[in-house]
Amino acid sequence: MRLISFNVNGLRAASAKPGFFDWFHATGADVIALQEIKARREQLTGTLITPGEYRESFFSSPTVKKGYSGVAVYSKVKPIKVSPELPWEEWAQEGRLLHLELPGFHFLNVYFPNGQRDGERLDYKLGYYGAFFEYAEKLRASKPVVVCGDFNTAHREIDLAQPELYEDTSGFLPQERAFLSKMIKNGYVDTFRFLNGDLKDQYTWWSYRSGDKRKNNGWRIDYFFASPELAPKLAKAWIEPKIAFSDHCPIGLELDA
Known about the structure:
By secondary structure, the protein is α+β, with helices and mostly antiparallel strands. Helices cover 22% and strands 25% of the residues.
């Protein structure tokens, strides 16, 4: 099974760029998960609603402003069940999660909060991390779990270009990085590192500041994690930095049958 995850930073804007649908169908993916789509389903038309053989699932919270957050999953595999958001009201307000129960595993597409420079949002981000982990662990009791999306945190120094500059910046704070360490300690596999080791200069997001992408001054903040039951099936994990429809780039994972 071939899986793709991509923070598109606005689905309508990304899809309007030349080559988007060529890329979309050329992925050959069984499941394509998008984050930060910044649109509700009724705002989308045409191929975005009926992209060939894919079934579509969208979730954007009706309680937050338009053009904010939102997630989508396009799947060739018929899901057993589709559930939006975490099951606790406090964490179900911003259109951040789609859970597809697939025949072999639970698939979670998540756009985690950005801690920003505001202490209140950092607290919300850390709270969301905690609630998400509890939810994933409950699901894992019934079948394996695959988690993908924009985690808005670089885990280790190797995961951003200039770590010494960002020790006090949200996205690389010790308490944010500790969440990723907790997942790994509890058996979840950072699939890219598991299959590729400590490759350097591997990033998934670049600031729009002039020259950052060209200089590869990036961060690896988009991940595929898999629960340990799936480790023997992990075949390939990759990053596609040349795909430039967003300030993020797509990442991929292949699972053996």
